[in-house]
Structure formats: C-alpha cells, structure tokens
Amino acid sequence: MKTSAPHIVSAFEDALKRLKSAIVQMAGAAETQLDQALTCLTQRNPELAREIVLSDARLDSFEHEIEAHCMRLLVLRQPVADDLREVIAALKIAGSLERIGDHAANSAKRAAAVGIFPDSAPLAGLPKLGRLVRERLTSVIDAYVDTDSEAALRIWRTDDEVDALYTSIAAEIERSAAATPDQFAAHMHLMMIAKNLERIGDHATNIAEVVYFVSTGQPLLDERPKADRSCDPAEG
Amino acid sequence: MKTSAPHIVSAFEDALKRLKSAIVQMAGAAETQLDQALTCLTQRNPELAREIVLSDARLDSFEHEIEAHCMRLLVLRQPVADDLREVIAALKIAGSLERIGDHAANSAKRAAAVGIFPDSAPLAGLPKLGRLVRERLTSVIDAYVDTDSEAALRIWRTDDEVDALYTSIAAEIERSAAATPDQFAAHMHLMMIAKNLERIGDHATNIAEVVYFVSTGQPLLDERPKADRSCDPAEG
C-alpha cells in the first residue's frame, strides 16, 4: 500500500530498489561471515579466523556506502511516508548487519583461541545455536525483500527459541567448566561465542521489527518474549 | 558552519533544539543507568539490579520517541546538508544510548548474581573500567551538545585506553578464576560485566564518530586504534 506523495515514480523506485539490493548484498556478506565463523567453530582454524577478521572491514564499508546512499536519497528525493520508512529501515538494517559481522568475527577469533587448548572444552550446543541464528537471519532478510509483515512478526515472536537455547548452552558450558577447572579460558571463550551468537539472534529480531514497521507503518511495541535467564541469580 | 538550504529558521532551529535536548535527556537516563549499575557492582544488591532492569524500558521508549520525532522532522521539514546530518545523528545516537542502557542493565543483573556467591571473586579493575567509560560517555555527550569535532576526535582516538584496560582486567579475572576453580560462574559474570563495560566504551566511540560527522560533514574513516587482544590465542 503506497501512500507517499507523488514523485517521479520510475527514478525513485529505481533508487529504492538499488538501496534494497545493496542491503541484500550486505546481508549476503554478513551471512558468509557467519558461515565461516561457524566453520571455524568446528575446525578451529586460526588461518580462517584471521581471514574472517580481515573481511569484516568489508561490512564496515558496506555500511558507510549504504548510509551515504540513504543521505543522497533523503536530500535529492525528500521521501515521505512509506518511502521515508524504506530509507530509515535501510539505515537501521545496515547498522545491525555491521554488528552481526563483528559478532561473527569475534566468534571466529575465539574459536581459534579455543583450538590451541590441547584437550579443548566441548562445543556444547554452539553449532546448533549457530545454525538457528543463521536460519533466522536468512528468514528475516527474505521478509525484508518481500516486505512481509507476517513473516517479520513470526520471526519476532520466536525470539525466545534463541534465548532458551542460549540459556541451556550457557548452563552446559558452566557444568563442563566445573568438571575441568583447569580450562577456564577455553570455557570463557565458548561462553563468549554463545553470547555473540545470541546477540546475532537479537539483531535478526531487531531487523524483524524494522521490517514490520516498514511493511505496516506501525512499530512493534509489545515486549518481546524473553526466555534468557542466564543472569538469574538462581542460575548464576 | 551552516550550509543548509534556506528554511523557516526559527521553527526549524527550534525543532532541532528540541531534538538535541531529547537526546541529552536520554543520555542523562543512560548515565543514571550506568551509575546505578556501577553501584550494583560494589554493593551487589539484587533489589537495585531489578530496579535498573525495570527502568531500562524507559530508554527503549526514549528511543522510540526520538525516532518518531526524527521521522516527523524529515517529513515536515525535509532538511538537507547540516540539518539532515543532525537528524540522522540523533537517530544513531539514540540507538547507541539504548544499547548502553542494555549493557548497564545486564551488568547490574550479573553483579547481583555474583553477589550470591559466598566467597565472591575479586572485582579486579571493573570499577575503574566503569568510571573510564562513564567519563567517556559524558565527554562525548558534551561534544555533541557543543558540536565540537576536536573533542569528538580526541575521544575517538583514545578508544584504545578502554581496550587496554579491558584486556588487563580480562587477564586478571582469568588468573583469579584459575586460582579458585570452584567459582567459574562468578568469574564468568565478572568477565561478562567487563565485556559489557567495554561495549559501552565502544558505543561512546561510535557516538564520537557521529559527532565528528555532524560537525564536519566528513566521516571518520581511518581504523580506530585497537588494543583489545583478549582473543589473541596467546592470551586465550
């Protein structure tokens, strides 16, 4: 439902399409970063970790380009209503994708660090958590491409799956740490990887909020379901 | 140096002033959250921690209000150049302040969780790191209020102080954990608090980038100094 003021449709719609395709391209780069970080998790390859850290700069420049693109659109086209929301959405999604790249790179570095421990700690459910947040990232980008508010809402509502898995993995890592007290550092890295993956899940949920907003014009104001009790003193 | 296209100066400048003062008010709320989280760190008071977590919702609604304010400004005033940068800056700073509130709330929860351990782990340099990032947050908001690019650059360039302190605290926590292997969970919480504070420092640096951009019209593109080697396999 387009309610924006009249504009030279073809030129502006072209510009919005280019913006959207820049976001999709950036999302592809973030997904690749995440895939490689997950590979690093099972292979614990310092060489691959270094590559991932280096290619993180690519996401930074993607974000700068998208921001510049949005600024140009705002100045030249002065969009309103739906079109303005599209531009603001692109700014916000690019910010989330950049942070996802950071979390992936940090996870890869830590996976390589765990790799140097001779009898390294168990991975617990980390690859499973990685796959879950990877799927959610793909789904939310699909929802963005299709401007699909229902899909966005579905993703937003199932955020607690990530939190529940994260909480159980955190407990598993704590148990493993208690059983092998000489390997604090390795368990620390595993815990930080779990946190990074959970944060990637959060960013996918944030993107779902943005997609919902851009599709419906309404913000998602309810409290998101929360199942992360990893800080609960009872579980501390 | 104002280079924007002509507009009804008084009304628009008033609106921008109101936007800026909304950001300053939100920053005040984020600073209060952080102060209370730091109090929690030394007092480890579960009651105070719960209050901090509850008042985090205030920062979320601040962010929504500022975003709505920015959207209205973009639609009604169609700003360009400096003025457009001001609006985009407000959007980005509000996003960072909201994240700062999250990190403060998470730190408070974890501090309370550490508190339940009878022989709790040492705090290492956490209060010092807390004060450092608190000062940096105040400075960067001052730089924003004064549109002071030099101050923003100074803050941006000294980001490595936070990273260096974080790295040394992480090492201290690891040593303490190795010495008291039955207290993995407490050390884990301390490490996560350190990470939260370091992230708050990162957000202050991100705000410095935004202030620099809004003051000069130029992005800060160089690599930020990095002294965080906490993931270095050598320190793993």
From TrEMBL, chains A, B:
InterPro entries: PhoU (IPR028366), PhoU-like_sf (IPR038078), PhoU_dom (IPR026022)
Keywords: Cytoplasm, Phosphate transport, Transport
GO cellular component terms listed in the entry, alphabetical order: cytoplasm
Chief location: cytoplasm
Top-level taxon in the UniProt lineage: Bacteria
Protein's UniProt keywords contain Cytoplasm: yes
Compartments, record wording: Cytoplasm
BP-aspect Gene Ontology terms: intracellular phosphate ion homeostasis; negative regulation of phosphate metabolic process; phosphate ion transport
Domain PhoU, chain residue ranges per copy: 23-110, 127-211
Protein function: Plays a role in the regulation of phosphate uptake.
Assembly and interaction partners: Homodimer.
Protein family (similarity comment): Belongs to the PhoU family.
NCBIfam families: phoU_full
Protein name in UniProt: Phosphate-specific transport system accessory protein PhoU
Organism per entry: Azospirillum doebereinerae
Organism placement in taxonomy: Bacteria, Pseudomonadati, Pseudomonadota, Alphaproteobacteria, Rhodospirillales
Gene from which the chain derives: phoU
